[in-house]
Amino acid sequence: MPSKKTYATLAAVAVAAGTIAVAGSGVAGAGTATAGKPGPERQLAFDRTATYPVFQNRPAGEDPATPTVAEISAVSADGRTLIYTDALARRIGFLDIGDPDRPRGLGTLPLTELGDAEDEPTSVAVVGGYVLVVVNTSASYTDPSGRLDVIRLTDRQRVASLDLGGQPDSIAISADQRYAAIAIENERDEEATPAGGEEGDLPQAPAGFVQLVDLAGKSPAGWRTRKVALTGPGGTALPALVSAGLAEPTDPEPEYVSINRRNQLAVTLQENNGIVLVDLPTGRIEKVFGAGTATVRGIDTENDGVLDPSGSFEDLPREPDAVAWIDDRYLATANEGDWRGGTRGWSVFDSRTGRVAWDAGNGFEQLALGYGLANEDRADNKGTEPEGVAVAEYDGVRYAFVGSERSNFVAVYDLSRPTSPVFRQILPATNGPEGLLPIPGRNLLAVSSEEDDASVLVRASVTLYRLGRDTPAFPSIVSAPERRGVAPIGWGALGALSAVPGKSHLLYSVTDAAYSPTRILSIDPTSAPAVVTGSLTVQAADGTPVGYDAEGIFARPQGGFWLAVEGATGAGNQLVRLDAAGVTRQVVPVPAEVAAGLAKQGFEGVTAGTDQRGREVVWAALQREVAGDPTGVVRLGRYDVAAGTWSWFGYRLGTTDTPGDWIGLSEITVVGDRLAVIERDKLNGPAAKLKRIYTVELPRAAAGSGPLRVLPKTLAYDVLPDLRATNGWTQEKLEGLTVAGDGQVYAITDNDAVQDATGETVFLRLGSEKKVFGRR
Description:
CATH topology of the domain at 491-773: Tachylectin-2, Chain A
Shape: elongated
Strand content: 35-45%
Oligomer: single chain
Largest sheet: 5 strands, mixed
């Protein structure tokens, strides 16, 4: 069970997260509590049970590298068959989730069998034994079209098809299954320029609308559509949209739909920053209101490689994307933004007044900082980009799920009081979480993701989570606020670990080139999750902040640090000695003859010890072979500090037969009379094969001249099972390893600053030094 320290830290993180109301921590095991005061009982929490890459569900014979995604998903009435849209491959897919620990592919249904090869599914829903597939068949932006295909789930045969009269987006089904509502967006062309406007501006005809389908008491063959126009005759603006102050009421562009138990439909007009309420039985527009603007402070707004939450923006329109009713009065919106705005959070609206009842402020952004998921590359463009929101009740508690498209997480909030959401936890997702599907009847949540790029092994997937009382595997590391009321310490790209001299259980890590300036982070691993407790900025000799590509760190018992700095070229590889204040005091370049044989993979780890005379000796590992060395043999460098000389030993790497893969080293540390190294492949997800810790003897003297002496290696620990045990996307970059002063062994993965990676950091407690290395 997590310690009380964990509760207090995570609650403090949430308190620092702007306007989020905090009554509990963000980790399982916490009871109802105020910040720093954990309750006596463990609250329920969601834990990931499985991650299913949908390329594994492709048709026989299709190239595994062919892009295939999972965007919007729905589930059968019994909660055991999941259906997802795959717009890239122009099909829908089916998964058996009867066992949520082991989802199984059930194949796909290509839309080419139902229409045209370019038909694109945009959304999906289930009514009874039928799958309702919303299909975009548009020939162009100016000639939009679409249809609703009704597929019998048992045999996947189409039993009906309805013309929708325009380009559709989302679909919602009423709780009583009497109605379906479909947003007909007729989206704008971002490269078109309307008269008197700029490229991508509104209005662009034809205008969008809402299509209703009456379902009750009829077979699909008898279903009929009813149009709810959002413009007047001839495309004129409706007075209700004008009075609501929408951006361009002649081009509403409805985006997302949700239906409450009173059969009242909420429709977001994202580009118009508005919301429309429609009575489904009559099709009458009841209310239109603007989503308003927000001023948000305490966020990162510059794409400059610095995690700096001191920025702000003024009076930006919320531009909500997804919408979900909380109850029959309040509704939640994910304020992704589009062309004019996006407030990087989510809001609760009172449908009776059209006013904001609660707003996340900077809280959603600061959660990303505290959990190491801030996508700094998007800091100047919608940040975390909250796109999806879903609401459902589990075990008597109503929850909101809010998805971050760019930081790859879903935040979970307790909505027991709709106007005072309480942050509970973050769920890690694969890249681009698009579809949020609560399955409360089975205590499950499914999240489907839309980013797929086989070239970097980023693959779209469906991830399943179960609500229970077990402590979730994520997060394994978080950060504490620097002080109460201030943003959490932003962190990420932690590719190295070191013990803290004189502190039996504390650790250091260091950021790599993903961020600048370089920072040394203090970590307390005694609580679960581990906590980033402090940050030290690395400086050049003149005291100015400096950015190194630090791939290794060693805290010296004599004071200060050694960094292993990887260069963009061979000559850029260096050992850098810092004093205790983080100021550069010495730079040791790699010898010229070694630099000449290096490509972009150079130093990847550093450690130090003493020789037989008690003098300091630094060890550094190169990741890949030096040109001219024997194939498959990489170098371990020994630097004699007093003499200022290098000597080199060889380490034989494993082999791989996977195209595009390579094997290399990514860490080194002294363990008694041996050197421990991490040897890993370049693969992730289900393809990952090699994530191991080996040891070699610790040479007590410099290497002699002549050929490299290859040190025999011994397998100490296979880390791959630990990485797979998280039930997530197996991380590629196992890059940090150390033994703390108390003899506990820790490892960590580099999250690549959420670039071409899920962004998840896995901090591992591997056990005692005796368990891992067979010694006390």
